[in-house]
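Why run this: before we spend reagent on co-expression, it is cheaper to look at a predicted model of the complex and decide which construct boundaries make sense. The entries below are exactly what would go into the expression plan.
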Amino acid sequence: EVQLVQSGAEVKKPGATVKISCKVSGYTFTDYYMHWVQQAPGKGLEWMGLVDPEDGETIYAEKFQGRVTITADTSTDTAYMELSSLRSEDTAVYYCATDPPSRSRYDWGQGTLVTVSS
Amino acid sequence: DIVMTQTPLSSPVTLGQPASISCRSSQSLVHSDGNTYLSWLQQRPGQPPRLLIYKISNRFSGVPDRFSGSGAGTDFTLKISRVEAEDVGVYYCTQATQFPNTFGQGTKLEIK
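The model came back. Tokens follow.
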């Protein structure tokens, strides 16, 4: 069974950096892409970017380019999303989600709430 | 970026009746490999999204057969043949044909 377990909720001040983890099990970590998706309170889903754990290659959405860093640690089967220069608009639930190149499945973590407040 | 537009944004439905959600993309979702990477997700209140349909019409494992997907090119539809109480939530179409992946605005399905 594919499982993605994310780290716990965070409270950060404006200007700070947050780093969220996503530990996977139930499949070969390097076989699937790892995506990160933002969902602001009461809003829809916004794709932030992905990492290919096979080679570490990343693709970022333009909106988050320069502030987001997505990495994958193949020694622990864990992906990370770091978001810097936090502002109040970054208050959201952040999800990791994984899919194979065939796009025949799309498994999601439970979500991590990040609250940005002074 | 490919823009995904869903209609309606809200859909009140009577239990046991059908429901239909449309999704239109701003450009063709046919990939150079011949596949169309259009999926449908369901997000129940307080839950993460879950995959219902992939590549237009393929039901993911464990998804009830009352859910079906259809379409081609730029126009796609998710249908629920008979709505049940557990179907309440927000439905999203999403494309993975071209980066960045993009999502529709979401359609809220509620019971009348």
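The longest strand of chain A covers residues 18-25. The two ends of chain A are 40 Å apart (CA to CA). Bring this page to Monday's planning discussion.
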